[in-house]
Amino acid sequence: MPHERFRFKDRLALERRISDLGLDIPLSDDISILFSPVVVARKVLPNRLVILPMEGADGDPAGRPSELTLRRYKRYAVGGAHLIWFEATAVTSDGRSNPRQLWIRPETRDGFKRLVKETRLAAHRKFRSEYNLMLILQLTHSGRFAKLEGQPAPVIGQHNPLLDAKLGLTPDYPLVSDGALDALQDDYVAAAELAREAGFDGVDIKACHGYLVSELLAAFARPDSRYGGSFENRTRFLVETAEKIKLRVRGLFVTSRLSVYDALPFPHGFGVNRDDPDEPDLSEPKKLIKKLRNIDYPLLNISLGIPAHQSHYGRPFDKPLIGQDLPDEDPLVGVARWLRLTSEIQKGFPTLPVVSAGYSWLRHYFPHVAAAMVEREKASLIGLGRGNLAYPGWVNALAADGLLDQRKVCVCCSKCSQMLRAARPVGCAVHDSGNYQAEYRAARKKAKEVLRIEKKTARSNRRKKKRKG
Ligand SMILES: Cc1cc2nc3c(=O)[nH]c(=O)nc-3n(C[C@H](O)[C@H](O)[C@H](O)COP(=O)(O)O)c2cc1C
User: Fold this and answer.
1) 163-170 contacts at long range (C-beta below 8 A, 24 or more positions apart)
2) What does pTM read for this prediction?
3) What is the pLDDT of residue 256?
4) Interval between CA 301 and ligand 1 midpoint (Å)
């Protein structure tokens, strides 16, 4: 099914395409269910709409939120969502994905306190004092995608030929030791305590997108380790860290964003059919969620795919990143995959509030799909990612008018992803161009330069090979 851009003149045309492709993407006329209450962590959220975590690469070198970070979150706060899931925030210096990634530690705690305070205040000012936001901070170690001072400094849980090749890692590149992972558990606990002091309601031990904790879930090929091989060992880091936070940090809940399908061939992917990496197998993710449920996870955010490997899995788009080919997949197939996997988890755990994502590509039609998902009990909460950067007031617009302004929605151009890749502050270069167009230009320049060097190296390697042969 070749890739096709979004070009539907009306909802009927979209529905026709869905049907032609034989996909299960339900749409509902009535979106009012999105504004029905839901209980999460003993609090009533008045609507089902969630701001998904989106790394902004706009912290200061110390890891503190900057004025740009504050701007992003204040825009979300006045946008009408009640649950804001803050972006991937490093728990250690060697776990940062770029020198501008947020990093929570004693020295930056007050910066996070201010971020929480100003986010809540912005909502209170706009919606009155009884308005209550639920704020979750995503804690991470970037693992194989970690960088020190902008240079790759991978911390890997297992070797993975596909991903190792991208980073130029040889088979003798050392794996992170069990001792270092034991110590890292305590770094997560310390970060969770700081998050509580800063005023967050909950923390997310990020377990998605191939970062360290997610890679460990798939560490079938990690030899002689308490963190590799068996299901118990592979899930140990996540489960033990969550248990420790729960035990040691009072007044804060623990959750995760969990990739339930890595789409990497066995033995390197989690949630993957051992004979066919194109086929998910959710038996292990479900077994893990059962364990997380037993540690009182009050909700779960579902994700999939490894953006650094196949970005279209997690972020169906119209235009790829610079230098990338268009995938041989219609974005609607990607959207349907998101919905199918999320539904399977929600159906398996009907009392667990599950956050569903992957909607931005559907533009202004997305609320109809989201409403159908909630109506059919295939998801409890609906998260938007890229759409927030483009249109931070989308929840208010939906509440007031029952529809989204199609001139303001995300166009899935991958510019925000490009900015993140270049470690430039992330925002919407299309709808917030005054603030982000220059950042995108800088990111594009960097990407073209990297591409030029890669091509030159490849040419020279080919020539060398030819001479040898
Ligand atoms: C620039 C960018 C930054 C992102 N940062 C994070 C992050 O910090 N944590 C995370 O779990 N997902 C992150 N994501 C993934 C999004 O949360 C979301 O899952 C994805 O974009 C699909 O949702 P959408 O179709 O609504 O954009 C990021 C995506 C983009 C494009």
Assistant:
1) 163/210, 163/264, 163/268, 163/306, 163/308, 163/309, 166/308, 166/309, 169/144
2) 0.97
3) 98
4) 12
